[in-house]
Each structure stands twice: as C-alpha cells, then as structure tokens.
C-alpha cells in the first residue's frame, strides 16, 4: 500500500481513556464505512488554518473521507483568527471541513479540540462541548499498548509567541507571502503533471535558524512531557511532521494542512504512523525515519 513513518511501543495494558464510539467515526455515505470498526484507533491533525488561502481544505476533505477513526484530535490552529481579523477569507470548502468534523462527532467519533495560538479565541470556551466536540486546553491519549501521550498544540514552548508576539505577527505576514509563492509554484507543477511538493517547507529546512528553531522546540516539548511523567507527546504548531525519540521520550508532531498535508494515526495494535497525503494516495516516506522504542 504505502510506507510510512511508524513507531511501535510496548507497555502496560491500560484501558483506553475516552467515551467509546457508538459506531465508526466516518460518514455513512463514504465507501469505507462498511467495515465493522473504523480504520484507525485515533487520528491527530493540526494547523489546518481555515480562513486562509493557504489552507488545503480540498485535500483534507479527501483524506477525511478515506480515513475514519474512533477518536479524532484537532491539535490547534484549526481556524486562523489572526488572518481573519486582517482579511476575511472563507470559501465553501472551509464550511465543508467544519461540517465534516461536526458530522464525525455526531456519528460517534470522539472528537477533541485543543486550541492553538492562531485560534486562541477558542481558549475562552475551554471545557465546553461544541456540537459534540470537546474543547480543552490539553488532554491525554492512551494508546492500545498503554502509553500515555500528552496532547498539546505547542505554542507555549515557542519563545517568539510567548515573549515577542509582535514579531510573530510580522513573521506571519512573511510566511503568508511564502505560501502564496508556494501555491503558484504547485499550480505550475500540477499543469506539468507533477505531484505536490512544498517549496515553503523546503526553504524553511534550508535556513539554519529555522532548523535550530525546530530542534529547540522539539527538545523543549519533549522535556516538559518527561517532567510531567508522560510516555510521549503529540503536538503541532511548527508545521514539521515528525516521529522520533528524544532522550528516550517519544516526540510526535502531526504536521499541518498548509504545507505538508500530514496526519498522525494510531492503528488498532498501537502503532503510530505519519501519513503524507497526496490526491488519490498517501505519499511514501523513507523508512530511515522510522522509530523503534521499547
């Protein structure tokens, strides 16, 4: 089928925490819903940035149609309030994403929303339920093998966000310009019959300061998860999908739906896997990035 970044863990046989689904987490009109149970135990996605031209709502809808789960974690920056305050942008496809998520909850999927910095307005509604979706500051997911994963967006570990928010707003403008270039670049690739490729992600990883920023962020989040006594952490924020062990602590970042079109999933046997979505199929990922932790 496809190769993905995976991680397998062993641990005590602890029960899954969260309300059991009434049935599969998908839509009744989708072809893969005929299975006895959803395809995955859990799906983790973040940084959709609804309300921006860079949001890849179409590919996300395709992904959700083909991937259902018992639990769905929305780990921040789902709606981009920063951009919407500057300029309103809300096409029908963004409505469709919201409706899809609400329908998932209505069909029995356990949907949890952890707001981030771009949708910080939602932090005013913590511990409320919105259309079947629980809104919380952070949460814990227990895998099938008993591993306790801390779920947080991650912006609290971003020094720019916490100590120089004005600089984050400036950077957001620059990032928007790069994403606009990325859209034109991939429009040309599509006309040439070439698959999607993120120019913005490539440029980010080639800039030394950006590489150091990602590494420092990952270490800071992993250290906090260790301090709190968790087995691992799942976050978003930096738009860099990853599964790796940091000094024995499992670090997972589910990526984004602006650049990488990525999601983290948990199989029913407890395996964790990153999926990079391409129209019609999941992109192959080099197995050298796989992580084995016991």
Automatic annotation (TrEMBL):
<dbReference type="GO" id="GO:0009245">
    <property type="term" value="P:lipid A biosynthetic process"/>
</dbReference>
<keyword id="KW-0472">Membrane</keyword>
<dbReference type="Pfam" id="PF00149">
    <property type="entry name" value="Metallophos"/>
</dbReference>
<dbReference type="InterPro" id="IPR029052">
    <property type="entry name" value="Metallo-depent_PP-like"/>
</dbReference>
<keyword id="KW-1003">Cell membrane</keyword>
<dbReference type="GO" id="GO:0008758">
    <property type="term" value="F:UDP-2,3-diacylglucosamine hydrolase activity"/>
</dbReference>
<keyword id="KW-0479">Metal-binding</keyword>
<feature type="domain" description="Calcineurin-like phosphoesterase">
    <location>
        <begin position="41"/>
        <end position="240"/>
    </location>
</feature>
<keyword id="KW-0464">Manganese</keyword>
<dbReference type="GO" id="GO:0046872">
    <property type="term" value="F:metal ion binding"/>
</dbReference>
<keyword id="KW-0997">Cell inner membrane</keyword>
<dbReference type="GO" id="GO:0016020">
    <property type="term" value="C:membrane"/>
</dbReference>
<protein>
    <submittedName>
        <fullName>UDP-2,3-diacylglucosamine diphosphatase</fullName>
    </submittedName>
</protein>
<dbReference type="InterPro" id="IPR043461">
    <property type="entry name" value="LpxH-like"/>
</dbReference>
<dbReference type="InterPro" id="IPR004843">
    <property type="entry name" value="Calcineurin-like_PHP"/>
</dbReference>
<feature type="region of interest" description="Disordered">
    <location>
        <begin position="1"/>
        <end position="33"/>
    </location>
</feature>
